């Protein structure tokens, strides 16, 4: 009775399993082949582990570098925006204050020319505020 008579669809699987068992027994019972097989498995596993670590490290490093770069760019952008906003705000405040001061000074001079008592009242009002 051959393997094909047992089950036709399973014959190749059974032959592969039989061959694997024979090779495994030979490797396990012969010291040199067992050592070479263990060394080969160790090298393959070490290589795969190193490859996985290198891949993960590269991805993590790239992510960290991107995160740091984005953080620095965001910090610079926020600093520039804050500086520009502060500069504009200071400019506007100074400009408005200067404009108001100029308008008040002009009003005082015009009032003083028209009526000296109005000038004195405006001076007291401005000193009080």
From TrEMBL:
Keywords: Membrane, Transmembrane, Transmembrane helix. The keyword Membrane applies. The chain crosses the membrane at residues 21-41, 47-68, 75-96, 102-126. It comes from the Eukaryota. This is Uncharacterized protein.
């Amino acid at each position: 009775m051959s393997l094909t008579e047992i089950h036709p669809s399973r014959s190749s699987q059974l032959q592969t399993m039989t061959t694997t068992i024979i090779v495994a027994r030979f490797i396990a019972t012969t010291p040199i082949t067992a050592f070479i097989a263990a060394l080969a498995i160790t090298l393959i596993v070490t290589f795969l582990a190193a490859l996985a670590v290198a891949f993960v490290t590269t991805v993590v490093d790239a992510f960290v570098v991107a995160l740091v770069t984005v953080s620095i760019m965001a910090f610079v952008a926020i600093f520039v925006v804050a500086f520009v906003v502060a500069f504009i705000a200071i400019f506007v405040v100074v400009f408005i204050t200067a404009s108001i001061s100029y308008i008040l000074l002009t009003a005082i001079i015009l009032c003083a020319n028209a009526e000296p008592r109005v000038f004195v009242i405006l001076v007291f009002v401005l000193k009080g505020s």
